[in-house]
Amino acid sequence: MTLAGRWTATLDDLRGKGRYRAFRPPAGIDFTSNDYLGYGPQCQPAVTPELPRSGMSSRLLRGHHAVWDEVEAMLAAWHGAESALMMTSGYAANEGLLATVAEPGDWVAVDEVSHACIIDGLRVARPRKFLFRHNDLNNLEDGLRAESAKRPEGRELFVVTESLFSMDGDTAPLREVADLCERYGAHLIVDEAHTTGCFGPRGSGYVDAAGLRGRVLATVHTGGKALGLPGAYVCGSKLLKEFLTNTCRHLIFTTALPAAVGAWWREHIPRVQADDAGRRRLHDNAAGFRAALARHGVAPAGRDYVVPVIVGQDEPSVRAATELQARGYDVRAIRPPTVPAGTCRLRVSVHADHDPAVLDQLAAATAGVLRP
């Protein structure tokens, strides 16, 4: 078979399974993006003619600018962390952090439904991996207990989880996970991609809202969801930042974000911190939408503003999403490999700026398209 033939066969197989993907421009009311606080439509960078609009090179060459020192200091203060390190994306931040801090011979326990960038970071690092059942503390403790009893000299244990899971919509039992890490001498890393801006009195995330900042090795935050900003960052100790700056290939060999984007961050962080009203609207809207679904006999998984409605198979999920799109609701079907086979779903992303009446209408429409 030729290379073109191999590719064509793969695409034909995806079509046959109902898993073929194609780009679709935004249309209708946004229930798909992760713009949880509703900043996207109006969040635009300030005009900064004095700042470069290209990264030009990596930060360690000519891509650094003093604005990033300001931004990182603001972010560290926001989270009550010693330091923050800006990266180009959440994917690069997660993959780069794990590929750098974990080494062959170390042991890493990771929740089985963690994002692909976490799994890919471990593939690069090549530690011994333990996938524990989703949010199963007993299964995690079994792994930690067995591993701590035989840990080789100089080898480290890590536990990695998301705080709010992007496809399941539930949250990790972080206090209990932190307790287990301390009991067995493991380092805890938390991906805060879907909670940054949305939890806590100043929006700094789930870890800070739970009072766990001093009990984690690192947290990863993205700007591309609730904050409406390009880029991402890692929070942790000053030593961690220094170590990543000198050894993380995802930072060293990547063109830096433009300094003009740094000005955007500098301007926008205080807005996010002050937006308690937006956070209240977000959580109220999520509770209202879930209650409306329940009134129509639909029981979504998880909690809060990521609302997965499990359909099951590929074709019915795509068909339901297409019908909702035709009615003006931009809801997408989530299929393997993003979620396990047999758990295809409609993933509804509730935002702070959604009209409660429209959410009620979407709940009724969702129940309608799911009826046989």
Q: What are the SSEs and their pairings?
A:
Elements: H1 3-17, E1 29-30, H2 59-63, H3 66-79, E2 83-87, H4 90-101, E3 107-111, H5 116-125, E4 128-132, H6 137-149, E5 157-162, H7 174-184, E6 186-191, H8 206-209, E7 218-222, E8 232-236, H9 238-247, H10 249-252, H11 259-274, H12 276-295, E9 306-312, H13 314-326, E10 329-330, E11 332-334, E12 344-349, H14 356-370
Parallel strand pairs: 1-10, 3-4, 3-5, 5-6, 6-7
Antiparallel strand pairs: 2-8, 7-8, 9-12, 11-12
Helix pairs in contact: 3-11, 4-5, 6-7, 12-14, 13-14
What is the gist of this entry?
The chain has 372 residues and is α/β, with parallel strands linked by helices.
Description:
The chain is α/β, with parallel strands linked by helices and 372 residues long. It has 14 helices and 12 strands. Strand 5, helix 7 and strand 6 form a beta-alpha-beta unit. The strands form 3 sheets. The chain has a 7-stranded mixed sheet, sandwiched between helices. A 3-stranded antiparallel sheet has the order 9-12-11, covered by helices on one side. Strands 1-10 form a two-stranded parallel ribbon. Helix content is 44%, strand content 15%. The chain folds into 2 domains: 115 residues, Aspartate Aminotransferase, domain 1 (Alpha-Beta Complex); 216 residues, Aspartate Aminotransferase, domain 2, CATH 3.40.640. Helix 4 runs parallel beside helix 5 and helix 12 runs parallel beside helix 14.
